[in-house]
Protein backbone atom coordinates (compact mmCIF):
# COMPACT_ATOMS: atom_id res chain seq x y z
CA UNK A 1 0.00 0.00 0.00
CA UNK A 2 1.38 3.43 -0.96
CA UNK A 3 1.90 5.76 1.98
CA UNK A 4 0.19 9.18 1.87
CA UNK A 5 2.47 12.22 1.40
CA UNK A 6 4.65 12.92 4.47
CA UNK A 7 3.89 9.59 6.08
CA UNK A 8 7.28 8.84 7.63
CA UNK A 9 8.78 5.62 8.98
CA UNK A 10 9.63 6.34 12.60
CA UNK A 11 10.80 4.44 15.65
CA UNK A 12 9.92 6.01 18.99
CA UNK A 13 12.37 4.94 21.66
CA UNK A 14 13.32 5.70 25.20
CA UNK A 15 17.04 6.27 25.34
CA UNK A 16 18.38 6.53 28.89
CA UNK A 17 16.21 9.07 30.71
CA UNK A 18 15.02 10.74 27.50
CA UNK A 19 12.58 9.83 24.77
CA UNK A 20 12.85 10.61 21.09
CA UNK A 21 11.83 9.89 17.53
CA UNK A 22 14.48 7.99 15.52
CA UNK A 23 14.63 8.37 11.74
CA UNK A 24 16.81 7.19 8.90
CA UNK A 25 18.36 10.23 7.25
CA UNK A 26 17.14 8.89 3.91
CA UNK A 27 13.52 9.23 5.09
CA UNK A 28 13.89 12.97 5.79
CA UNK A 29 14.61 15.96 3.53
CA UNK A 30 18.33 16.52 2.99
CA UNK A 31 17.96 20.30 3.23
CA UNK A 32 18.23 21.22 6.95
CA UNK A 33 15.57 23.96 6.84
CA UNK A 34 13.03 21.63 5.20
CA UNK A 35 13.95 18.78 7.55
CA UNK A 36 13.56 20.95 10.64
CA UNK A 37 10.23 22.39 9.53
CA UNK A 38 8.97 18.85 9.01
CA UNK A 39 10.23 17.70 12.42
CA UNK A 40 8.46 20.58 14.17
CA UNK A 41 5.23 19.29 12.66
CA UNK A 42 6.07 15.71 13.65
CA UNK A 43 6.70 16.71 17.26
CA UNK A 44 3.78 19.15 17.51
CA UNK A 45 5.83 22.29 18.12
CA UNK A 46 5.48 25.10 18.97
CA UNK A 47 2.92 24.22 21.63
CA UNK A 48 3.56 23.93 25.40
CA UNK A 49 1.68 20.61 25.41
CA UNK A 50 2.72 19.39 21.93
CA UNK A 51 -0.81 18.04 21.72
CA UNK A 52 -0.75 17.52 17.95
CA UNK A 53 2.50 15.59 17.71
CA UNK A 54 4.86 13.04 19.25
CA UNK A 55 6.53 15.42 21.71
CA UNK A 56 5.97 14.99 25.43
CA UNK A 57 5.78 18.69 26.46
CA UNK A 58 9.31 18.71 27.92
CA UNK A 59 12.78 19.15 26.39
CA UNK A 60 13.68 15.60 27.50
CA UNK A 61 10.84 14.14 25.44
CA UNK A 62 11.12 16.42 22.41
CA UNK A 63 14.22 14.93 20.81
CA UNK A 64 15.12 13.46 17.43
CA UNK A 65 17.88 11.11 16.25
CA UNK A 66 18.77 11.06 12.55
CA UNK A 67 20.86 8.01 11.67
CA UNK A 68 22.64 7.01 8.46
CA UNK A 69 25.43 4.71 7.29
CA UNK A 70 28.81 6.31 7.95
CA UNK A 71 31.35 7.07 5.26
CA UNK A 72 34.04 6.99 7.95
CA UNK A 73 35.78 3.58 7.85
CA UNK A 74 36.24 3.76 11.63
CA UNK A 75 32.53 4.04 12.39
CA UNK A 76 29.41 2.17 11.37
CA UNK A 77 26.75 4.87 11.54
CA UNK A 78 26.42 8.64 11.76
CA UNK A 79 24.11 10.02 14.45
CA UNK A 80 22.78 13.57 14.29
CA UNK A 81 20.94 14.72 17.39
CA UNK A 82 18.29 17.42 17.06
CA UNK A 83 16.69 19.17 20.04
CA UNK A 84 13.20 20.26 19.03
CA UNK A 85 11.79 23.23 20.91
CA UNK A 86 8.56 22.74 22.80
CA UNK A 87 7.06 26.23 23.01
CA UNK A 88 9.32 27.73 20.35
CA UNK A 89 9.57 26.85 16.67
CA UNK A 90 13.24 26.00 17.02
CA UNK A 91 15.41 23.03 16.11
CA UNK A 92 18.99 22.97 17.41
CA UNK A 93 21.94 20.80 16.41
CA UNK A 94 24.39 22.58 18.73
CA UNK A 95 24.77 19.72 21.19
CA UNK A 96 25.03 15.95 21.53
CA UNK A 97 22.67 13.84 23.61
CA UNK A 98 24.14 10.86 25.42
CA UNK A 99 20.77 9.51 26.47
CA UNK A 100 19.30 9.37 22.97
CA UNK A 101 22.67 7.92 21.94
CA UNK A 102 21.77 4.79 23.96
CA UNK A 103 19.12 3.93 21.36
CA UNK A 104 21.23 4.53 18.25
CA UNK A 105 22.92 1.11 18.23
CA UNK A 106 19.66 -0.84 18.62
CA UNK A 107 18.02 1.39 15.99
CA UNK A 108 20.88 0.71 13.56
CA UNK A 109 20.30 -3.03 13.97
CA UNK A 110 16.50 -2.66 13.72
CA UNK A 111 16.90 -0.81 10.40
CA UNK A 112 19.52 -3.19 8.99
CA UNK A 113 22.37 -0.68 8.98
CA UNK A 114 24.47 -3.02 11.15
CA UNK A 115 24.30 -6.81 11.19
CA UNK A 116 23.50 -8.23 14.60
CA UNK A 117 25.82 -10.66 16.32
CA UNK A 118 24.48 -13.98 17.58
CA UNK A 119 24.87 -12.93 21.23
CA UNK A 120 26.08 -9.35 21.40
CA UNK A 121 26.55 -6.46 18.99
CA UNK A 122 28.86 -3.47 19.11
CA UNK A 123 28.04 -0.44 16.98
CA UNK A 124 30.62 2.26 16.30
CA UNK A 125 28.92 5.66 16.17
CA UNK A 126 30.05 9.04 14.89
CA UNK A 127 28.25 11.87 16.69
CA UNK A 128 27.76 14.35 13.85
CA UNK A 129 27.05 17.30 16.14
CA UNK A 130 30.55 17.32 17.60
CA UNK A 131 32.52 14.89 15.44
CA UNK A 132 33.08 12.73 18.53
CA UNK A 133 32.85 8.94 18.55
CA UNK A 134 31.27 6.34 20.78
CA UNK A 135 30.74 2.60 20.82
CA UNK A 136 27.53 1.00 22.05
CA UNK A 137 27.42 -2.69 23.01
CA UNK A 138 24.15 -4.48 23.77
CA UNK A 139 22.66 -8.00 23.76
CA UNK A 140 21.34 -9.46 20.49
CA UNK A 141 20.64 -13.14 21.24
CA UNK A 142 19.74 -15.02 18.07
CA UNK A 143 20.49 -11.92 16.00
CA UNK A 144 17.70 -9.73 17.42
CA UNK A 145 17.93 -6.79 19.80
CA UNK A 146 16.91 -7.74 23.32
CA UNK A 147 15.40 -4.87 25.28
CA UNK A 148 14.52 -6.74 28.47
CA UNK A 149 17.10 -7.24 31.19
CA UNK A 150 18.05 -6.51 34.76
CA UNK A 151 19.89 -3.18 34.36
CA UNK A 152 18.32 -0.36 36.34
CA UNK A 153 18.96 3.35 35.89
CA UNK A 154 17.61 6.15 38.05
CA UNK A 155 14.79 8.14 36.51
CA UNK A 156 13.39 5.17 34.57
CA UNK A 157 10.88 2.72 36.04
CA UNK A 158 11.68 -0.98 35.93
CA UNK A 159 14.68 -2.65 34.35
CA UNK A 160 15.98 -3.27 30.83
CA UNK A 161 18.93 -4.69 28.93
CA UNK A 162 22.18 -2.80 29.52
CA UNK A 163 23.74 -0.70 26.77
CA UNK A 164 27.42 -0.09 27.51
CA UNK A 165 28.56 3.18 25.93
CA UNK A 166 32.24 4.06 25.76
CA UNK A 167 33.63 7.39 24.60
CA UNK A 168 37.21 7.43 23.30
CA UNK A 169 39.15 10.64 24.03
CA UNK A 170 38.23 13.42 21.63
CA UNK A 171 40.33 16.15 20.09
CA UNK A 172 38.67 19.03 21.97
CA UNK A 173 40.45 20.22 25.13
CA UNK A 174 38.87 19.13 28.42
CA UNK A 175 39.36 22.70 29.69
CA UNK A 176 38.20 24.93 26.80
CA UNK A 177 39.31 28.14 28.51
CA UNK A 178 42.75 26.69 29.24
CA UNK A 179 42.24 27.31 32.95
CA UNK A 180 41.14 25.13 35.84
CA UNK A 181 39.04 27.97 37.24
CA UNK A 182 37.45 31.11 35.87
CA UNK A 183 35.40 33.77 37.61
CA UNK A 184 32.15 35.06 36.16
CA UNK A 185 30.10 37.74 37.91
CA UNK A 186 32.08 37.05 41.07
CA UNK A 187 31.29 33.31 40.94
CA UNK A 188 34.09 30.71 40.58
CA UNK A 189 33.39 28.24 37.77
CA UNK A 190 35.17 25.38 36.03
CA UNK A 191 34.38 25.07 32.32
CA UNK A 192 34.78 21.53 30.98
CA UNK A 193 33.99 19.76 27.72
CA UNK A 194 33.99 15.98 27.93
CA UNK A 195 31.56 15.57 25.05
CA UNK A 196 29.23 18.37 26.23
CA UNK A 197 30.22 21.95 27.10
CA UNK A 198 29.45 22.16 30.82
CA UNK A 199 29.97 24.80 33.50
CA UNK A 200 30.49 23.56 37.06
CA UNK A 201 29.34 25.89 39.84
CA UNK A 202 29.22 25.35 43.61
CA UNK A 203 25.54 25.76 44.54
CA UNK A 204 26.47 27.68 47.70
CA UNK A 205 28.18 30.38 45.62
CA UNK A 206 24.75 31.25 44.20
CA UNK A 207 22.98 31.25 47.56
CA UNK A 208 21.21 27.91 47.17
CA UNK A 209 21.90 24.52 48.75
CA UNK A 210 21.90 22.36 45.62
CA UNK A 211 19.36 20.01 47.23
CA UNK A 212 16.26 21.95 46.16
CA UNK A 213 13.58 20.35 43.99
CA UNK A 214 13.98 21.23 40.30
CA UNK A 215 10.70 23.12 40.20
CA UNK A 216 11.75 25.29 43.15
CA UNK A 217 14.98 26.23 41.39
CA UNK A 218 13.09 26.97 38.17
CA UNK A 219 10.77 29.35 40.03
CA UNK A 220 13.65 31.34 41.55
CA UNK A 221 13.66 34.37 39.25
CA UNK A 222 16.79 35.92 40.76
CA UNK A 223 18.68 32.64 40.34
CA UNK A 224 17.51 32.33 36.74
CA UNK A 225 18.84 35.82 35.95
CA UNK A 226 22.24 35.02 37.46
CA UNK A 227 22.46 31.70 35.65
CA UNK A 228 21.61 33.34 32.35
CA UNK A 229 24.39 35.89 32.77
CA UNK A 230 26.90 33.21 33.75
CA UNK A 231 25.93 31.01 30.79
CA UNK A 232 26.29 33.81 28.25
CA UNK A 233 29.71 34.79 29.62
CA UNK A 234 30.85 31.16 29.84
CA UNK A 235 29.86 30.58 26.23
CA UNK A 236 32.20 33.33 25.11
CA UNK A 237 35.02 32.10 27.36
CA UNK A 238 34.63 28.56 25.98
CA UNK A 239 34.85 29.75 22.39
CA UNK A 240 31.19 29.09 21.64
CA UNK A 241 30.35 32.69 20.80
CA UNK A 242 26.87 34.04 21.45
CA UNK A 243 24.94 31.19 23.11
CA UNK A 244 21.73 33.13 23.77
CA UNK A 245 19.91 31.07 21.16
CA UNK A 246 21.48 27.69 21.95
CA UNK A 247 21.17 25.00 24.61
CA UNK A 248 24.89 24.80 25.43
CA UNK A 249 26.81 25.18 27.59
CA UNK A 250 24.87 23.39 30.31
CA UNK A 251 25.19 24.68 33.89
CA UNK A 252 25.52 22.20 36.75
CA UNK A 253 25.27 23.22 40.41
CA UNK A 254 27.31 21.08 42.79
CA UNK A 255 26.84 20.25 46.46
CA UNK A 256 28.27 17.66 48.82
CA UNK A 257 26.77 14.16 48.35
CA UNK A 258 23.87 13.01 50.50
CA UNK A 259 23.34 9.37 49.49
CA UNK A 260 26.76 7.78 49.24
CA UNK A 261 27.73 9.24 45.87
CA UNK A 262 30.56 11.57 44.92
CA UNK A 263 28.57 14.78 44.54
CA UNK A 264 24.99 16.08 44.30
CA UNK A 265 23.98 17.90 41.10
CA UNK A 266 21.30 20.15 39.71
CA UNK A 267 21.66 20.74 35.95
CA UNK A 268 19.96 23.40 33.81
CA UNK A 269 19.12 22.59 30.16
CA UNK A 270 19.47 25.59 29.90
CA UNK A 271 16.43 27.08 31.66
CA UNK A 272 14.57 24.01 32.86
CA UNK A 273 16.19 22.08 35.69
CA UNK A 274 16.91 18.50 34.59
CA UNK A 275 14.97 15.89 36.61
CA UNK A 276 18.12 13.74 36.49
CA UNK A 277 21.30 14.53 34.51
CA UNK A 278 22.39 13.98 30.93
CA UNK A 279 25.02 11.33 30.17
CA UNK A 280 27.51 13.72 28.60
CA UNK A 281 26.83 16.35 31.23
CA UNK A 282 27.58 13.75 33.89
CA UNK A 283 30.76 12.84 32.01
CA UNK A 284 31.82 16.47 32.28
CA UNK A 285 31.05 16.54 35.99
CA UNK A 286 32.97 13.31 36.63
CA UNK A 287 36.04 14.58 34.79
CA UNK A 288 35.79 18.00 36.42
CA UNK A 289 35.73 16.51 39.93
CA UNK A 290 39.06 14.81 39.25
CA UNK A 291 40.78 18.08 38.30
CA UNK A 292 42.87 19.36 41.16
CA UNK A 293 41.72 22.84 42.12
CA UNK A 294 38.54 22.62 40.06
CA UNK A 295 35.19 23.81 41.34
CA UNK A 296 33.58 20.93 43.22
CA UNK A 297 36.81 19.04 43.91
CA UNK A 298 36.62 20.09 47.56
CA UNK A 299 32.99 18.95 47.80
CA UNK A 300 33.40 15.56 46.15
CA UNK A 301 33.99 12.23 47.84
CA UNK A 302 35.93 10.14 45.35
CA UNK A 303 37.55 6.76 45.75
CA UNK A 304 41.04 7.38 44.38
CA UNK A 305 41.46 3.67 43.62
CA UNK A 306 38.41 3.43 41.34
CA UNK A 307 37.43 4.96 37.99
CA UNK A 308 33.77 4.90 38.98
CA UNK A 309 32.13 8.12 40.11
CA UNK A 310 28.51 8.14 41.28
CA UNK A 311 26.76 11.40 40.35
CA UNK A 312 23.69 12.09 42.50
CA UNK A 313 20.80 13.94 40.85
CA UNK A 314 17.19 14.80 41.75
CA UNK A 315 15.79 11.33 40.99
CA UNK A 316 18.71 9.08 41.95
CA UNK A 317 22.19 8.61 40.58
CA UNK A 318 24.27 7.93 37.48
CA UNK A 319 27.53 5.98 37.55
CA UNK A 320 30.32 7.16 35.24
CA UNK A 321 33.63 5.43 34.61
CA UNK A 322 36.11 8.28 34.25
CA UNK A 323 39.88 8.65 34.26
CA UNK A 324 42.18 11.51 33.29
CA UNK A 325 45.56 11.89 31.62
CA UNK A 326 47.53 15.00 30.74
CA UNK A 327 48.27 17.00 27.62
CA UNK A 328 51.87 17.68 26.54
CA UNK A 329 51.39 21.12 28.08
CA UNK A 330 50.45 19.62 31.43
CA UNK A 331 46.71 20.34 31.37
CA UNK A 332 44.33 17.52 32.34
CA UNK A 333 42.72 15.54 29.52
CA UNK A 334 40.06 12.84 29.39
CA UNK A 335 41.47 9.33 29.05
CA UNK A 336 38.44 7.04 29.48
CA UNK A 337 34.72 7.65 29.84
CA UNK A 338 32.08 4.91 29.92
CA UNK A 339 28.53 4.55 31.18
CA UNK A 340 25.77 1.94 31.31
CA UNK A 341 22.42 3.11 29.93
CA UNK A 342 19.30 1.29 28.80
CA UNK A 343 16.94 1.78 25.86
CA UNK A 344 13.50 0.48 24.94
CA UNK A 345 11.61 0.38 21.67
CA UNK A 346 8.18 1.94 22.25
CA UNK A 347 6.73 1.77 18.76
CA UNK A 348 7.94 1.21 15.24
CA UNK A 349 5.65 2.42 12.49
CA UNK A 350 4.49 5.42 10.49
CA UNK A 351 4.10 8.96 11.82
CA UNK A 352 1.81 11.46 10.13
CA UNK A 353 3.05 15.06 10.61
CA UNK A 354 0.71 17.93 11.21
CA UNK A 355 -0.18 19.58 7.86
CA UNK A 356 2.22 22.28 6.64
CA UNK A 357 1.39 25.92 7.13
CA UNK A 358 -0.04 25.42 10.63
CA UNK A 359 2.97 26.70 12.59
CA UNK A 360 5.76 29.30 12.23
CA UNK A 361 8.94 28.35 10.45
CA UNK A 362 11.74 27.12 12.71
CA UNK A 363 14.22 29.57 14.18
CA UNK A 364 17.72 28.29 13.44
CA UNK A 365 20.31 28.58 16.16
CA UNK A 366 23.44 30.26 14.80
CA UNK A 367 26.50 28.28 13.82
CA UNK A 368 27.10 24.62 14.40
CA UNK A 369 27.48 21.80 11.90
CA UNK A 370 24.65 21.02 9.52
TrEMBL record:
InterPro entries: OMA_tautomer-like, PrpF-like
UniProt entry tagged with the keyword Isomerase: yes
Key words, A-Z: Isomerase
Residue stretches spanning the membrane: none
Xref: PANTHER family: ACONITATE ISOMERASE-RELATED, ISOMERASE YBHH-RELATED
Entry's family note: Belongs to the PrpF family.
Name of this chain's protein: FldA protein
Primary gene name: fldA
